[in-house]
Amino acid sequence: MMVLHIGNGVTVRVRDLIAFFDFDSMTVASISRRFLSDAETTKRIFDCTGGELPRSVLLVSDGKEKGGACRVLFSLLSTAALRARLASDEND
């Protein structure tokens, strides 16, 4: 099982990873802010930063059927670092 380390000792299964985005970019568009607000209201946001400012937002499948809700994880790692970790795992 391939996992992606997203910082602070947190890992996610690569097969459950839907997408990741730059935190700053994600908070600019009103539709993205609304998505994050809805995720917070429904308790689907998990802050993996240890109280620091997030650099990326990851969307992760909750393991249920297609079309179900996803979890939203905040990470200290940049999208470039996450992309490099994924590429490194694929080449190992």
Strand content: 25-35%
- N-to-C terminal Cα separation, in Å? 13 Å
Segments where pLDDT lies below 50 for 5+ residues? none
Radius of gyration: 13 Å
Counting DSSP E segments of at least 2 residues, the number of strands comes to: 6
SSE pattern, N- to C-terminal:
EEEHHEEEH
Order of neighbouring strands in the sheet with most strands:
3-5-6-4
Query: Number of helix segments?
Result: 3
How does the overall form come out from the CA principal axes? globular
Reported for the largest beta sheet, the result is:
4 strands, mixed
Structural category = alpha+beta
- Proportion of helical residues: 25-40%
Mean pLDDT figure = 92
* Domains (count): 1
Tell me about this structure.
The chain is of the alpha+beta class and 92 residues long. It is 32% helix and 33% strand. It has one domain. It has helices spanning 23-26, 30-41, 79-91, and strands spanning 3-7, 10-13, 17-22, 45-47, 56-61, 70-75. A 4-stranded mixed sheet has the order 3-5-6-4. A two-stranded antiparallel sheet has the order 1-2. A hairpin with an 8-residue loop joins β5 and β6 (70-75). The chain starts with a strand and ends with a helix.
